[in-house]
């Protein structure tokens, strides 16, 4: 790579996008792309993957075709690029006739540098042929994990992209994804590249995200308590079902939150409206299924909550990755329970897949369960799953961003005796009752159900009076997670012993478990303080909020998301630096030449007029 190419790239990075330097991993991908090589990049959300195909398109010229999975995402990216002065357009089913005609006029004139298309649109008759005649110079594939049958968002249309590459004349490909374990990476490479590509696997660590987990204990109360420490921030609460998103959103609205539901079963108009409100406004909580997320380009999401346990670490990592994309601190909370574990296992068992695929999916689910029940640093456990060995938060130089390391991390203790008591209660009661009933047996609580079943006469009745019921229900969950218990009945639930459970019960195998971690109580900081994710002092925070209001009014006038004007990170930099002129404003991160011309004077005036 010639020094002039790198200097050109850096000049465009500053003048167009307003950044002084590349983020870690970006230049390696960009350099390989500019050299005409195939590139496969695995980089976490928030690392700036889109820059890895946008910048080469501007430096090298020609037309880059970008395959993007969702219309909302591509329209958002085109909007951001256009406001930065980049010649970009999209072709999708939501284009008006005039928009499509304008895009083709610019394509035919050779004016465009980036064209965004969905994989479904590419499969349409004749489009690839027309694009080849126009001379596509590079194919960029975003969310490349969609091509893999092992990926968590597999989309059959992505399988056609290798043929698209051939039909375009074998152009170089840049494929990017945020999540892919080794098996998924190998599958992606095999599907998309005729020869091994230049592989860039950046660290999966997101040190600005705090990882927290808690067993379910009145989930609505837990979520409300968590949100109270994030008032004023925008966030996502993921739910496992459509009906749950609506019930939870309604419950949060009753408590004063600006909460909206989002799922694939809603009318398209309502779904789009709720998504637009979330993208454009501050302080919005969206309760959503996983249908919401892949197309969300909002950089200032301050928290992600899982109201129900995800089915795999890949899904979990992808979903929490939607928080803190601006690099500022963001929090995550995952609630989990034995019902989640049973549901996820049942979903795998009921899938029409072969035995090998089912084995792998169970392995991935067990890894997710292990993360929930971990007695070690969450961050170390998460990164270890992706093949990175790192010290715990407690021993790392960076700030502690894990619930276990922030408290006294629980250690594994010998739980064999208590486990045998509970497993004995399962066996003696007929292997069909749930955790609450078993806890009543062990604590000697003679409920009507206990007496009706004559379980007050069992040898195990009352043998666990030294512990509260909550301790026994928690132990049942842990034994289920450890594979010592299994679901007794799909229709009625309850527990039965597994082979491992029998081995423990009869003293042939010990078991060590951790104590439940501390309850996630959330921060005691006020909502106003919580909005200052970067620790702004009161005066600077006031100016930041003032600039956010100006940004919001401009965004409403233009009908775009607020962050397309400027991100929170850029506004915070303005509030700290208080530029007095356009030259000083130009030095602010995220202020490119086009945005300086469009918005510089308005924000300078707002800064000058702000008291203090």
Structure summary:
The protein has 612 residues and is of the alpha/beta class. It has 28 helices and 18 strands. α13 links the parallel β13 (301-306) and β14 (330-336).
Describe the structure in your own words:
Its EC number is 5.6.2.4. Residues 222-368 form the Helicase C-terminal domain. Pfam families: DEAD, Helicase_C, HRDC, RecQ_Zn_bind, RQC. Keywords: ATP-binding, DNA damage, DNA recombination, DNA repair, DNA-binding, Helicase, Hydrolase, Isomerase, Metal-binding, Nucleotide-binding, Zinc. It catalyses: Couples ATP hydrolysis with the unwinding of duplex DNA by translocating in the 3'-5' direction. With 612 residues, this protein is α/β, with parallel strands linked by helices. The chain has four domains: 3-201, 3-Layer(aba) Sandwich (Rossmann fold); 209-406, P-loop containing nucleotide triphosphate hydrolases (Rossmann fold), CATH 3.40.50; 412-514, Arc Repressor Mutant, subunit A (Orthogonal Bundle); 534-609, HRDC domain (DNA polymerase, domain 1). It has 28 helices and 18 strands. The strands form four sheets. A seven-stranded parallel β-sheet has the order 3-4-2-5-6-1-7, with helices on both faces. Strand 16 and strand 17 (493-497) form a beta hairpin. Helix 18 crosses helix 19. The longest helix has 21 residues, at 538-558. The relative contact order is 0.09. The model is unreliable at 518-532 (pLDDT under 50).
């Amino acid at each position: 790579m010639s020094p002039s190419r790198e200097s050109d790239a850096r000049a465009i990075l500053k003048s167009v996008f307003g950044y002084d330097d590349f983020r870690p991993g970006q230049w390696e991908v960009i350099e390989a792309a500019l050299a005409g090589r195939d590139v496969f990049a695995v980089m976490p959300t928030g690392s700036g993957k889109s820059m890895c195909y946008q910048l080469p398109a501007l430096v090298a010229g020609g037309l880059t075709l970008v395959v993007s999975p969702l219309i909302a995402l591509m329209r958002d990216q085109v909007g951001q690029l256009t406001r930065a002065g980049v010649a970009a357009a999209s072709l999708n089913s939501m284009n008006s006739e005039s928009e499509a005609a304008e895009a083709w006029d610019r394509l035919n004139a050779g004016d465009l540098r980036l064209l965004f298309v969905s994989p479904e649109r590419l499969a349409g008759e004749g489009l690839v042929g027309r694009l080849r005649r126009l001379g596509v110079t590079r194919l960029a594939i975003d969310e490349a994990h969609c091509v893999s049958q092992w990926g968590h968002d597999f989309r059959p249309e992505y399988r056609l992209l290798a043929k698209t590459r051939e039909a375009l004349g074998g152009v170089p490909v840049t494929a990017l994804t945020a999540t892919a374990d080794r098996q998924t990476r190998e599958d992606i490479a095999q599907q998309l590249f005729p020869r091994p590509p230049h592989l860039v696997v950046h660290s999966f660590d997101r040190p600005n995200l705090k990882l927290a987990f808690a067993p379910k204990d009145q989930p609505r109360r837990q979520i409300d308590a968590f949100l109270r420490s994030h008032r004023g921030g925008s966030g996502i609460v993921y739910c496992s079902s459509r009906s749950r998103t609506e019930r939870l959103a309604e419950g949060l609205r009753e408590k004063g939150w600006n909460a909206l539901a989002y799922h694939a079963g809603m009318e398209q108009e309502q779904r789009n409206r709720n998504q637009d409100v979330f993208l454009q406004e501050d302080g919005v909580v969206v309760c959503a299924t996983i249908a919401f997320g892949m197309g969300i380009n909002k950089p200032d999401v301050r928290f992600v909550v899982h109201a129900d346990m995800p089915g795999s670490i890949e899904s979990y990592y992808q979903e929490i990755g939607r928080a803190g994309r601006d690099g500022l601190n963001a929090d995550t909370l995952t609630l989990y329970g034995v019902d989640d574990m049973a549901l996820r296992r049942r979903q795998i068992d009921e899938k029409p897949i072969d035995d090998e695929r089912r084995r792998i999916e169970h392995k991935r689910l067990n890894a997710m369960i292990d993360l929930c029940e971990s007695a070690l640093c969450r961050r170390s456990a998460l990164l270890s799953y992706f093949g990175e060995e790192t010290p715990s938060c407690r021993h790392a130089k960076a700030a502690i961003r894990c619930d276990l390391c922030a408290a006294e991390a629980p250690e594994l203790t010998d739980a064999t005796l208590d486990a045998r008591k509970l497993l004995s209660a399962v066996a003696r009661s007929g292997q069909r009752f749930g955790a609450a009933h078993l806890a009543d047996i062990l604590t000697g609580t003679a409920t009507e159900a206990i007496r009706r079943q004559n379980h007050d006469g069992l040898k195990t009745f009352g043998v666990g009076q030294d512990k509260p019921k909550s301790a026994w229900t928690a132990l049942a969950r842990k034994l289920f997670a450890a594979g010592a218990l299994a679901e007794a009945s799909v229709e009625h639930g309850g527990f039965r012993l597994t082979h491992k459970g029998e081995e423990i019960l009869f003293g042939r195998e010990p078991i060590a478990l951790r104590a439940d971690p501390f309850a996630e109580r959330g921060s005691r900081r006020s909502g106003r303080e919580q909005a200052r994710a970067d620790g702004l002092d009161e005066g600077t925070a006031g100016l930041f909020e003032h600039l956010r209001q100006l940004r919001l009014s401009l965004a409403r006038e233009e009908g775009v998301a607020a962050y397309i004007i400027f991100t929170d990170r850029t506004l915070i930099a303005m509030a700290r630096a208080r530029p007095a002129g356009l030259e000083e404003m130009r030095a602010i991160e995220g202020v490119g030449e086009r945005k300086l011309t469009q918005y510089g004077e308005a924000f300078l005036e707002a800064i000058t007029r702000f008291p203090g």
